[in-house]
Amino acid sequence: MVVSSGLKRHVAARRAVLAVALLGCLGPRALLAQDTTPARNPTSPAEMLAPVNVTVTGSRIRGIDVETAQPVFSMDRAAIRATGLTSLGDVVARMPSAGTPEVTPQDTLSSSNDAGGRYVNLRNLGAVRTLVLVNGRRWTTSLGGLTDLSTIPLAIVERIEVLKDGASSIYGSDAIGSVVNIITTDRFEGATADVLYGVNGKGDGAQKNGTFTWGRSTERSSLILGASYEDADTLDDSKRGTTASAYGPRHPLDGYAMGPYGGVVDPATGNRYVVNHGATDTASPANYHPYDANSVADKYNTARDMSFRAGSKLRDLFATGRYNLTDDITLRGMVNYGVRDTRSQASGYPLRSDTGRADGLFIDPANAYNPFPGNSTSFFRRTVELPRMDWAKSKVFHADAGLEGTFQWLDHAWNWDVTYAYSEDRASRTTSGNINLVNARKALGPTTTIDGQVACASAADRAAGCVPWNILAGPGGTPDAVWRYVASTTTAHETTRTNDIVANLTGGLVDLPAGTLRVAGGVEHRREDGRYVPDPADAAGLTTQLASDPTSGGYAVNEAYLEFDVPLLTDAPLAQELAVNASSRYSHYTAFGGRTNNKYSFRWKPFDDLLLRGTYAEGFRAPTVADLYAGSAESFESFLDPCDSTFGAAATDAGVRARCGAAGVPANYRQVDQSGAQITSNTGGQNPSAFRTGANPRLKPESSITRTAGLVYSPTYLDGLDMTLDYYKVDIRDVITPILAGDILNFCYVRNDPTYCGRFTRAPNGSITALDETLVNLGSLSTEGYDLGLHYRFPATRFGEFALTSDSTYLKDYTQRSSASAEPRQLAGYMNGVQGLYRVRSNLTLDWSWQRFGATWTVRYYSGLKDSCWSATQECNQPDTPNVISGGQGISRKGGVAFNDLQFRWATPWNGNVRVGVNNVFARKGPFYYNVSSAGGGSPPYNPAFDIDRYFYIGYQQRF
Fold first, then answer.
1. Helix (H, G, I), strand (E, B) or coil at 285
2. Half-sphere exposure of 670 toward its Cβ, with a 13 Å CA cutoff?
3. What are the residue boundaries of the structural domains of the chain, listed by start?
């Protein structure tokens, strides 16, 4: 294990670079008034000093045509504003090639510090396999390797470029499926204020956003300063019928969990009883009735207290500046500091006697409220009076400073740049509403009577605030003094730091008959360090909060790359242009050693209207600090046990039934959920016992091969039309994954893969008591499909100008293998836990502009998905089709859905701009998917990628 013990070594260097960065940002301000330098000679090398906003995504060589050489999707400032969205993450999620990330704002049950952020997952390969850059440079990441796009202020974004092929040979780790490059504005004159207010159709979830940007530019310098504020209110499950129950309006009484009425286990018989509703004397057995776990009479609809989408506040300050030290050398810098607060709520804790960890938690034999005096009595009861609240705070700081310049060599212009970047993410998560097990054990302990009142028997405990707890009393039966004594509020902290030094050099090497052979090369040194410090009480298992161990670790990487662009033919028959590009990057990590990744591409223009292109790229994803060094942690999983005799695969598959029997599972075994009820559908249930997840310091990197082939067609006979068609195929090996409980069980029993059968243990009655989800390099993932883009600007008319844009993605294949010897699972077209693997996603936009007015209509289409049946007889339109998710028989094919967005805009005569819009104009609801997981999805059965309501907004921008 590489322990993070050298952070102090970087303090001096960080202070130095921050001073340089601030000089780059603030220095021009002092010089603006006296800047009288004459205009530069436009033929001098300094004219070729490219500003930030011409960064080439996917290549370090200046001058390659980004729009044609590689499959790059671009969204400019106008298109971003037309969405009506205020978060960069939400904007990118609208792209057809974007899938649902591992963590969404609806993931209100997550115990991760990443909860509340906005992340991007392209090609459905996961957010950790999508590299996010700002002006070609890495941005801040969390301990788990996620980049929160909400920390990048939308106000300074000039455009978004998405490179839709592998680029590890250029950028290094993580650039497997795609690269998102956020290009910021580098020159701005004047000031702009922009405000926006939006609200959902249900009247909640209001979003308020405001930004202020000021800039000043001269021939030698530019400076931009700005601030932004965003406030998004919480959306509650209870406000809408779609999410008001655990499994949606079609099954409103299913998914009820442990209730708020005190339940006990008879020490003599093991039978369970619940106190009669409204009873005050809980010590009398006559005031109890038998507990029926399969009835909702004594249970609780937890959706009443759950957040559907977490609320958040984001404050951001940024500064960026450039100053030409000479005609050939420019100093530049950027500083950004953002604070994000996220808040969410979950229902009160389902407290049981086995919650007390190894020591248990029982009503003492000498407790006055014990209905079985003389016995340690087991109990169960949800503390609905004490909802669990989460407040997550993330403080993200990024600063980079560097020099760039030009010179002449070998009769060609050369560009160079050197950059130092420092990023830091400090996150904390405070949770209330859990139970302090130490105090709860005392409050449930022996009691005495003092002045006619029941009191804790121990004088020392009374002096420390102990108050007797009648845990069996129903809602409203517990005094506030007791809640204050037994409640727990704890805080965990997380910090990640990145120090990055990059140097690049590019220019023309030699003239060939078809043009100039150009080359780029560079080196990079990066240090990643991180730590996670759980609350000591949580880590020690002294509260009901999920226990986790500390994390501390880091690694360093040294890299070098070369890239060549070679023109082969030009102005030849059937070869208006033919060129190849090759690049190679060597990376050496202290955590696992070195590796080399290569990329080869070509572009061929047989005639003016048509360009053909293709790439072959090797890629990799290095394990994150959390992957390697995170301490183990608890989690409660929801899954369907294949050995369940009614809904599991064993019910219809004799082979699965035999394997379950051989493992000692009883033939009539029924899976039970957290409330003790037998599961009632193919959705399974949440396990009563916590499972463990953990890191693995022996992990090696994931490896990938990306292939693309495509064309760009711009016919001269139809001016204004552009068409792109690209094929992609990505194969990933040695996938780093925390295989979830449902997959582990399915791989063991359904896929008959013994690799997984040692990861869990069962009790004699068949229930799973422990399961290991430790990270491993195991299996492979492959995806294949097509991207189609059609863009047409109609000839101008007296009614205005019209433009039609269509961008679509077709998913041909998405195959997962659990191990090299296992059968593949073809998942394309399925709802797979946290993301829909749509066969087709498409955006169609019609834009109209006339004088000072304009309007945009956008249709967002998601094709239908296969989902697990509710049961063999309900919501199962294809009962004989194998379900590759669960391994059993039967799927439910759900239809597609389209959301329509409309925006009107008006440019005022006083340099203002008004925009009014409605997203999801027709208030469409998507289908219910029972495969949606509460981890990532947050609020099953609704798909987190879909709009939940109609959304209205109005915005105003004023330039000064």
1. helix
2. 10
3. 257-306+347-385+436-477, 638-686
Task: Classify residue 377 by its DSSP letter.
Answer: B
| Alpha carbon separation from 93 to 204, 275, 614 (Å, rounded) | 22, 49, 26
Alpha-carbon distances, residue 921 vs 201, 525, 690, 853 (angstroms): 10, 49, 43, 20
808 pLDDT band, cuts 50/70/90, is very high
Is 95 in contact with 178 (CB distance < 8 Å)?
no
546: closest CA among 535, 557, 556, 555?
A: 535
pLDDT for residue 12 is more than 50? no
* Burial track 424-434 (b if 16+ CB lie within 10 A, e otherwise): bbbbbbbbbbb
Tokens of 902: 């409309």
The pLDDT, as a whole number, for residue 840 is 97
Q: Are strands 130-134 and 178-184 parallel, antiparallel or unpaired?
A: parallel
- Dist CA 616 CA 601 (whole Å): 6
Which residues have CB under 8 Å from 157's CB, separation 6+? 77, 80, 88, 182, 183, 184, 185
Which residues make beta-bridge pairs with 489? 432
* CA gap 235, 859 in Å, rounded: 24
- For residue 129, the SS3 value is helix
Question: SS3 of 58, please?
Answer: coil
**610 CB neighbour count, 10 Å cutoff:** 15
The pLDDT of residue 273 is 96
The predicted structure's pLDDT at residue 547: 83
This prediction has a pTM of 0.86
Instruction: Pick the closest to residue 367 from 378, 380, 359 (CA basis).
Output: 378
State yes or no: cis peptide before 623, omega within 30 of 0: no
pLDDT at 39 over 50: no
The pLDDT value recorded for residue 55 is 53
Task: Report the alpha-carbon distance of residue 770 to residue 302 in Å, rounded.
Answer: 25
- Specify burial of residue 271 (Cβ count, 10 A radius: 0-12, 13-18, 19+): exposed
User: What is the DSSP-derived secondary structure letter of residue 88?
Assistant: H
Coil, strand or helix: which one is 910?
A: coil
Alpha-carbon span 740 to 931, nearest angstrom: 13
Residue (of 780, 768, 790) closest to 711 by Cα position? 790
User: Quick one: pLDDT at residue 427?
Assistant: 92
Q: DSSP labels for 34-57?
A: G--PPPPPTTSGGGG---GGG--T
> Phi and psi of 43, rounded to 5°?
-95, 0
Q: What percent of the chain has a predicted confidence (pLDDT) above 90?
A: 62
Helix (H/G/I), strand (E/B), else coil: 748: helix
Q: Which of 617, 612, 414 is nearest to 516 (CA)?
A: 414
Distances from the Cα of 217 to the Cα of 189, 221, 493, angstroms: 6, 6, 41
DSSP-assigned letter for residue 746: I
pLDDT averaged over the chain?
87
SS3 673: coil
Averaged pLDDT for residues 90-94: 87
How far apart CA 417 and CA 56 sit, in angstroms, is 14
Over residues 545-574, the mean pLDDT reads 93
